[in-house]
Write a structure and sequence with these properties.
heterodimer, A: mainly alpha, Arc Repressor Mutant, subunit A, 3-stranded antiparallel β-sheet, elongated, B: alpha+beta, 6 helices
Chain lengths: 95, 239
């Protein structure tokens, strides 16, 4: 869910999101189509994303809402803290 | 030579994984599934290919269908057939699975048992009420209620068993294997318990005996039908 939200700071369609995540992570993260569809529906329901352009039903694009943006920022903050913890821990272990 | 044939399904709620493996094996032999059929699938003769298959449960509105299918086609999965909210997809072997994380996979089985829930709860309640009514009434009312309860029980048992299996599928994904194993032995236990009641409890209430008969029938008849269907198609193939 975090990965998908991270790509939706600009409008994108489902296919674009899947590709971007896979390319950015160099294949380490890949999202299956059924999972993708489930998560998009859930994010819409929670109003964390909104439909941006629905004129082409095969290429509907989505964008983060203000609420979604805040959720993503908060999620990012927590992740950063945990990354710092891991980094500090690994450094200590080496010394 | 016939260019279509039929194979049985173990019932999607019971053996989705086995069914998908079976479809793959037939594809390797050049028989590709083309649609759902009564208690099974229709296959068509073609070139042998290593295809993998997946099922998704989802209720889609008309305007959602296109987008949903685009996600699958862009990931290499093409729709073979849809029946109600069940969608069967095919992809070349090696294609990444349609579900990539556990949370959404759990939701898949929630969708599949959401539809069952109302039906199951109402049929169970009605059946129990009817049996209770039959036990505590007499005369004509007793006869009527016994017949009603009997008729209700016939569809209720398989409905309950299907619902239990959809929960079991969900638990499997969630990693609750203890519950899954317990569920597997329930029908055998029920049938054994019923047989024991019939043998040793001659003096019990008629209704208890009747329920025991029904449970034996409910476990035995589907097994018999399934064996018969399987045999029929084996014999049919040779003829």
């Amino acid at each position: 869910m975090f990965y998908i939200m991270a790509t939706l700071t600009v409008p994108r369609h489902g296919y674009g999101i899947m590709n971007l995540i896979e390319e950015t992570s160099k294949g380490a993260i890949s999202i299956g189509p059924a999972s993708m569809y489930t998560i998009i529906k859930k994010l819409l329901k929670q109003e964390w994303i909104q439909l941006y352009d629905g004129s082409d039903s095969r290429r509907k694009t989505y964008l983060l809402t203000d609420k979604g943006r805040r959720v993503l920022e908060e999620d990012l903050r927590i992740r950063k803290v945990m990354i710092d913890l891991a980094e500090a821990g690994l450094k200590e272990g080496k010394e | 030579m016939k260019s279509t044939r039929y194979i049985t399904s173990g019932g999607l709620a019971f053996s989705e994984g086995k069914d998908m493996e079976k479809l793959r094996r037939f594809s390797l032999k050049g028989w590709h599934v083309s649609g759902f059929a009564f208690m099974g699938y229709t296959l068509e003769k073609g070139e042998s290919a290593d295809y993998i298959y997946s099922i998704d449960y989802r209720s889609l509105k008309e305007d959602e269908k296109e987008e949903y299918l685009t996600y699958f086609s862009s990931a290499g999965w093409s729709l073979v057939a849809s029946q109600a909210d069940i969608h069967l997809f095919r992809a070349k072997s090696g294609t990444k699975p349609i579900y990539s994380d556990r949370d959404t996979m759990v939701e898949k089985y929630e969708t599949s048992n959401k539809n069952m829930k109302t039906l199951t709860i109402s049929s169970v309640l009605l059946t129990i009420l009817a049996w209770a009514g039959a036990m505590f009434s007499s005369g004509i009312l007793h006869s009527i209620l016994t017949v009603v309860a009997f008729i209700l029980t016939v569809p209720t048992l398989p409905i309950v068993w299907t619902a239990v299996s959809t929960y079991s599928n969900k638990w499997k994904v969630e990693g609750r294997s203890g519950l899954v194993h317990t569920v597997k032995i329930i029908p055998t236990l029920l049938a054994l318990a019923s047989i024991l009641i019939l043998f040793f409890a001659n003096d019990t209430d008629n209704i208890v005996r009747l329920i025991a008969y029904i449970i034996i029938g409910a476990v035995g008849i589907p097994t018999a039908v399934w064996v018969f269907m399987a045999l029929y198609h084996i014999v049919g193939k040779r003829a």
